[in-house]
Amino acid sequence: MASPTAPAASGAARVAPDMVIAWNAIAQRTAITNAKQFQTQSMVYISYVQAAVYDAVVAIGGRYKPYTKSLSARAGASMDAAVAQAAHDVLVRYFASQQAELDADLAKSFGALSEGAAKSDGIALGKDAAEALFARRAGDGIEADTGFAVPKAAPGVWQPPAGQGPQTPWVAKMHPFTLEKSDQFRPAPFPALTSPEWAQLYNEVKSLGGSNSTTRTAEQTDIAKFWSTNAIAQYNTAFKSIAQSRGLDAVDTARLYAMGNVVGVDALIACFDAKYFYLNWRPQYAIPQGEADGNPDTAGDSAWTPLLATPNHPEYPAAHGCLTGAEARVFTAFLGTDRINVDLTSTVPGLQATTRHYNTADELMTEVTNARVWGGLHYRKSATEGLEIARKVATFSLTRYFGPATP
Questions:
Q1: Tens place of pLDDT for every residue, the chain, 407 residues?
Q2: Same domain, residue pair 181 and 232
Q3: Taking every pair of C-alpha atoms in the chain, what is the biggest distance, in angstroms?
Q4: What is the CATH number of the domain that holds 81?
């Protein structure tokens, strides 16, 4: 696993993380707010940005291995200029319609920097970092037409919610950032519909996940709704909070953003591979059709609806399990302890608590597993399998990327 933060080299100047944080916020605004991308889709683009920013930063500050390749930085090059230019160029490449706004962001960033060789050398490095990212990710399958067709309706087979098409099936075929291939950690099939395990999974979410559940507590309802916020913004906000509360410099902040987004999105790519391979049905359709699954222990309820709106991608495994499992391991690897002491926030209206604290990585993973059942979106098996995929992805990725530079 990637080791905790490395000490700055003797005599190396610590640069404040403000520019790294600012351009992460710009990346979120560009992909999530302006482009209104789906969550997994937006994390792909934000990962492009954070990988390029990370490479630009470590070219100057050292301490860690680059993501793409070692870049040459002139002595004294401005790290802030490199960060702004790298992030800007990546965003303009993929969001050309927003170039005017991004150009204005860049001008604002540059306006705070003194003119001279340091600034111009930083700009050149930022351009190089973006180009290295483009070369590394050429032909990776982003937004590619995979020819996916919605399967014929049948017991156990996923159908998208009425009026919606399948969400981002191309993610399942996209070349990952750190894994060898998207199906590298594909899980075993979901339990058979005639099995006792299926009946147990079915009846749990039927009882606890319905919109009119009488067994789910008020606190459980609040937690389920808390986790219906945009998870990509949620975790990037947590990275910012860690950077600011723990006094990280620009190098470690860039590393945290890169680790969190790149490892997180690879877990989602692995997750979507399994989703679109197995095409498992959601509780929204399974429970009203309980009489059709051939299992005597799954009584149907034609009036059952989930607490939360069902996303338009297949059920197994749970994307929140994959993402949160990855981020829990990123927190542990980055901080060097399972006692992560991390706060997450939610922007969902009407919550009793908009910020929740997690003492350990296990607390975080346990809560998200429960939340997806309580929300009526997933069976418990799908959430725990997502965590297992994440464990494998994070172990593979963090032993190969973002570690200390070799002396």
A1: 676 776 555 345 799 999 999 999 999 999 999 999 999 999 999 999 999 999 999 999 999 999 999 999 999 999 999 999 999 999 999 999 999 999 999 999 999 999 999 999 999 999 999 999 999 999 999 999 999 999 999 999 999 988 889 999 999 999 999 999 999 999 999 999 999 999 999 999 999 999 999 999 999 999 999 999 999 999 999 999 999 999 999 999 999 999 999 999 999 999 999 999 999 999 999 999 999 999 999 999 999 999 999 999 999 999 999 999 999 999 999 999 999 999 999 999 999 999 999 999 999 999 999 999 999 999 999 999 999 999 999 999 999 999 999 87
A2: yes
A3: 76
A4: 1.20.144.10
Instruction: List the one residue out of 212, 202, 369, 216 whose CA is nearest residue 305.
Output: 212
CA nearest to 110, candidates 172, 2, 102: 102
Please report whether residue 70 resides in a domain.
yes
Domain end (from 115, 137, 159) = 137
Structural domain of 82 = 18-137
* 193 falls within a domain: yes
Alpha-carbon distance of 30 to 82, in angstroms, equals: 19
Looking at the structure, tell me whether residues 194 and 280 fall in a common domain. Answer: yes
Q: Which run of H or E residues covers position 373?
A: helix 361-374
Give yes or no: residues 359 and 221 share one domain. yes
For the record, the structure tokens of 11 come out as 């005599």
Nearest to 5 by CA among 236, 358, 259, 235: 259
Angstrom distances, CA of residue 82 to CA of 208, 209, 341, 401:
50, 48, 32, 21
How far apart CA 275 and CA 270 sit, in angstroms, is 9
Q: How many domains does the chain have?
A: 2
In a domain, 176, yes or no: yes
Helices (H), 189-247: 196-208, 218-226, 231-245
- Whether a cis peptide bond, with omega within 30° of 0, leads into 17 is no
Cα–Cα distance between 351 and 222 in angstroms, integer? 6
Closest CA to 371 of 393, 392, 340, 348: 348
What tokens appear for 294 in the block? 């051939």
User: What pTM, to 2 d.p., does this model score?
Assistant: 0.97
- Do 334 and 188 share a structural domain? yes
